[in-house]
Prior knowledge:
The protein is an alpha/beta fold. It contains seven helices and seven strands. The mean pLDDT is 91.
Amino acid sequence: ILGAPGAGKGTQSKRVAEEFGVQHITTGDILRANKDMETDYGTPREYMDAGELVPDAVVNEIVEKEVGEADGFILDGYPRNLDQAEFLAAITDLDAVLYLDVSESELTRRLTGRRVCSECGDTYHVEFSPAEEAGVCDECGGELVQRDDDTEDVVRERIRVYHENTAPVVEFYRDEGDLV
């Protein structure tokens, strides 16, 4: 599933994974789960701890491992650029690539309203999915906070970068006839 930050990739990926009994592969989760995995380019932790983007070669190696072990999968937010799309095409065949096209104003509204539990990581939205008690996690009672990357200025920059990097990916899959 492709889409800008806030388009609903995570939500829809979980639903598709449950409906079809396939593995939900999201790069953020697999990087965290494999942060100490040795690759030819170091470990994901080295980049994450330095606040840097994990290089494509590292992400690709981890995705290849996950895809190879899965009996059916849905990728959430990968590939993010043309090099990753070409790598993915070399290691597997896809049934379809879903593209969630959401307006920038709606993306901004969704992301700036998101709140995350500082304790358990549960996600809420002040408008669409509020906690029973404002600012308090329903699951564990932890404090709900706005992520640093969910402020309006940062959201707009994330969306700009997404479009810059992912427009060629959308066209790649459109040309391949896989884009839905």
